[in-house]
UniProtKB/TrEMBL annotation:
Keyword annotations: Bacterial flagellum, Secreted
Listed name of the protein: Flagellar hook-associated protein 1
Flagellar basal-body/hook protein C-terminal domain ranges (all copies): 611-646
Gene Ontology biological process terms, A to Z: bacterial-type flagellum assembly
Keyword Cell inner membrane listed: no
Localization, UniProt: Bacterial flagellum; Secreted
Record-stated family: Belongs to the flagella basal body rod proteins family.
GO cellular component terms, semicolon-separated: bacterial-type flagellum hook; extracellular region
Length: 653
């Protein structure tokens, strides 16, 4: 009878335990990372009798987890990719809002407003309110550069903090995985599957894979090793603590806490995306912003340095940029704008007579230093130069002014007894010298067929002017390239001559802009671009004119920069800014699409996982009824056996 009771009891206990597993499934139906469990039942070893074997009931041989390791591994891989894509789209979206190109407060609007201020000034060059308005628009522009630059710094600071926080999470997850490894190995020794611990470990691995891409390797003792590029994060019951560090180049790297030379490189995950943004994306767009700022500084200053304000010239000038050494070659003197070989035209004005003397200083930047430039300036009559704190200062003698204007000399000399006067604005593409020579002898305006020949520095004839009987002395004659000539009455002889410097660029070296002499902007990039201190203190110094005060030649040259298609990397400033915004917009759009694609893929794989590992309450309720019936049947069987035993005992007694 004991065997009969044991068979019934085994069925009772097995059904009861199966119901416990089913109840466990139902109670964890909504638990994240839970894997459905089920019981594997088998007949107990039979009893061998004379007539054969007699069954001994049933037993639970194993409680299994319904899982697919490939799907779990695939899900971890997709989770890493999704982590990268989601972080990338988030920060690119924030970066797009930093440029904020669709609003009136954008850098694009400030740039357009700045050039409008220059255009307005070109119409009213002597109007102080127009100058003040341009100054304010320029300040708004520089503030816009500073705002975006500061936003970059803030974003990088937040990204760095986020990396540090996520590295801390990685260490915590790795430590917990190592602890669970130890607990699992203890149970595994007894050849028992610790299903709930395995679920906890899988959930931790899934969380870890979102942060960094990982490779999980199972061991025979039930533990797993977790590795990534650079080394292990978890090895059995031990884990590696990692930290973030900023290297000498300013990039964030991930290293072993105990060995900074052991670097971890991740191919996916949130940390990789944050590193990419900090080390590459933010740097790339910040460099573009700095390139725009420096290009604007350079081009505006190159033109501004050649013009004059309302004073028409300067009694003294001080450079604002320092050289690394006064004896260093100018192309290796640490100047942000590297000068080139060429000529600088220095005009000295006698304030009492209005006479203008043009002087040319030829510069070889590979052999000349700031000291050499000082010496050359000292060699110009009525000028002197000095150096203090590695900066050049230029002084005009009393009663004189100096400028670097490319304006034509209005009184270049005489032709015989006739005084020549020049007007116009030279429009040629290169600096040149025009030589005027009398081709005959006679009286200006009287002698028939009297002519003046004009040649350029190459000896080519560019004009032959009729100054004979058909010419009225003092009338203007067109020469070439915007230059006009008028000759007073008088006599000339064959071979009488004078020369005129026609200047397209009075500083072909860009040395004035490099040294910061008579410049509009100071600074080198978006972080420090400013309107020069001198102009901030006195807007009359804004160089809207060349030569005579009141003309708008230089203001028009500055205004033309807005449409200059070669101003910056073969495009205009506005188009360069639009390219930045377009590139950022396209990159952001791609990141959004990538995030959406990985989200859909992850959802699909999770659905596949849930089909295998997820709990269906309807299915579990069916199992519960089935096991309940088995339990009731076993209980009924035990009751019957009990009745038989009681009846037998009664009959014997």
């Amino acid at each position: 009878m004991s065997s009969d009771l044991q068979i019934g009891l085994s069925g009772l206990l097995t059904a009861q335990r199966a119901m416990l597993v089913t109840a466990h499934n139902i109670s964890n139906a909504n638990t994240k990372g839970y894997t459905r469990q089920s019981t594997i039942m088998a007949a107990r070893l039979p009893f061998v009798a004379n007539g054969g074997t007699l069954g001994q009931g049933v037993e639970i041989v194993k409680i299994i987890r319904h899982k697919d390791e490939y799907i779990n591994s695939r899900l971890r891989d997709i989770s890493s990719s999704l982590g990268s894509a989601s972080v990338k789209s988030q920060y690119l979206g924030e970066l797009e809002s930093v440029f904020n190109e669709t609003t009136e407060a954008s850098l694009n609007s400030a740039l357009a407003s700045f050039f409008k201020g220059i255009n307005d000034l070109s119409q009213y060059t002597e109007n102080m309110s127009s100058r003040a308005a341009l100054f304010e628009k320029a300040n708004t522009l520089t503030d816009s550069f500073h705002r975006i630059h500061n936003e970059f710094d803030q974003m990088k600071m937040f990204v760095k903090q986020s990396i540090e926080n996520k590295i801390s999470d990685i260490n915590t997850l790795s430590e917990n995985i190592a602890k669970i490894n130890e607990e699992i190995s203890v149970v595994h020794v007894r050849d028992i599957e610790s299903n709930d611990l395995l679920d906890q470990r899988d959930a931790l691995l899934q969380d870890l894979s979102k942060l960094v891409n990982i490779t999980v390797t199972s061991q025979n003792n039930g533990m797993v090793n977790v590795s990534t590029q650079g080394g292990d994060l978890v090895s059995g019951t031990s884990f590696t603590r990692i930290v973030s560090d900023v290297d000498d180049s300013g990039e964030i790297e991930i290293v072993n806490y105990k060995n900074e030379n052991s670097k971890y490189t991740f191919s996916a995950g949130e940390v990789r995306a944050l590193q990419d943004f900090y080390n590459e994306t933010a740097v790339r767009y910040k460099d573009k912003l700095d390139t725009l700022a420096f290009g604007l500084i350079k081009e505006v200053n190159k033109i501004h340095s050649e013009g004059v304000g309302l004073s028409g010239g300067f009694t003294s000038l001080m450079s604002t940029n320092t050289v690394s050494s006064t004896t260093a070659m100018l192309n290796a003197a640490g100047l942000d704008l590297t000068p080139s070989n060429g000529d600088i035209y220095i005009s000295v004005i006698n304030k009492s007579t209005g006479e203008v003397t043009k002087n040319i200083i030829s510069v070889d930047v590979s052999s000349d230093s700031l000291v050499d430039l000082q010496t050359a300036v000292n060699g110009v009559a009525n000028l002197s130069a000095s150096i203090a704190d590695n900066k050049l200062a230029i002084f005009a003698d009393a009663g004189y002014q100096v400028n670097f204007s490319y304006a034509l000399d209005p009184n270049p000399g005489n032709l015989g007894t006739s005084a020549a006067s020049v007007s116009g604005i030279y429009t040629g593409q290169t600096n040149d010298v025009y030589t005027f020579t009398a081709l005959g002898a006679g009286t200006i305006g009287s002698t028939a067929g009297l002519q003046v020949e004009v040649k350029n520095s190459d000896g080519n004839v560019i004009a032959t002017l009729d100054v004979g009987s058909n010419y009225l002395p003092g009338n203007t004659l067109n020469v070439a390239n915007g230059v006009s000539l008028a000759i007073s009455g008088g006599t000339i002889a064959t071979g009488d001559t004078f020369s005129l410097d026609v200047v397209n660029d009075s500083d072909s070296t860009d040395l004035l802009a490099a040294l910061g002499i008579n410049t509009f902007f100071s600074g080198t990039d978006a972080s420090d671009i400013m309107v020069s201190t001198d102009i901030a203190e006195d807007v009359s110094l804004i160089a809207a004119s060349t030569g005579a005060v009141g003309n708008s030649t230089n203001a028009l040259r500055l205004a033309a920069l807005q449409q200059n298609s070669s101003a910056l990397e073969n495009t205009t400033f506005a188009d360069y800014l639009h390219q930045i915004a377009s590139s950022l917009g396209e990159e952001t759009s791609n990141a959004y699409r990538s995030e959406e694609n990985f989200t859909n893929l992850e959802t699909s794989i999770r659905n596949r996982r849930d089909e295998i590992s997820g709990v269906s309450t309807d299915e579990e309720l069916v199992n519960l009824v089935r096991f309940q019936q088995a339990y009731q049947a076993s209980a009924k069987y035990i009751s019957i056996i009990d009745g038989l035993v009681q009846g037998l005992l009664t009959s014997i007694g």
